[in-house]
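Quick one: structure for this chain?
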Amino acid sequence: MNVVNLHTKKHNRMGFVGGTDAIKIMNGKWHELWLEKTGQADPTDLSDVFRVQLGVATEEFNIKWFCKQYLYEYKDLMKQTEFEKTFDNVPYKGTVDAVHETFDFIVECKHTGSWNTYQKQLEYYMAQLQFYMAVSGTSKTYFSVIFGNEWECRTVGFDITYFNKLRERIAEFWQYVKFKKEPNDIDIPTINIDSIHVNDMVRRDASKDNHFKELAEIYKATKQSHKDHDKAKKELRSIILPSESEIYNEDIKVIKDSRGIVKVMEIKQ
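Got it. Here's what it folds into:
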């Protein structure tokens, strides 16, 4: 039994709030985290979790691929760099995957399934991304994600409004740790991230825009008829014989020009 390693592992997760802790705090998993931070439970051992270790194994490749696509030198990025800051008398500590001091950005790498979406990754990891930018003092993150065997990367800007809300929740959580008061039934409202700049752009909720709603309903209502239209046009083009230049009736004509291109046209009455 390796008591030293177990004690060190527990000790290393106590006395501060980290980036993964920020995710748990924003997801309302306060009790589980409180047990860890007060030394009553060991941190979850992820050494035998395949998807986690796959992300660790592909991290170097992920960063190198990012450098190749964005024309940065791999050697110019400092990998696995730890930063510490204190906000509201709470110790923050974050280890970023890579940081480029000259160009003021960090790189955060993830590896997820092909079924996942970039937006879902943003929503889940936003607390961690904003946390890391705050402790490192950088203004943006390159969020580099491998989806199965596909890759996508976008920039995420530091958002002071979101971070201030994150700070409030962390400070509240830390009071439970500091005074060893057990948290129960914590209700954390979801923070909308539409206004956070991703690739220097934002999202907009048009749920209350009547014109957008009307167009969306028309789009849904005509979707099937549009498919039927395209299918009929494709079949009309396919039935003209090689020896025919045109087939027609009183409504439609299918013509073949000198280049062999077949077109379907409506006959105007």
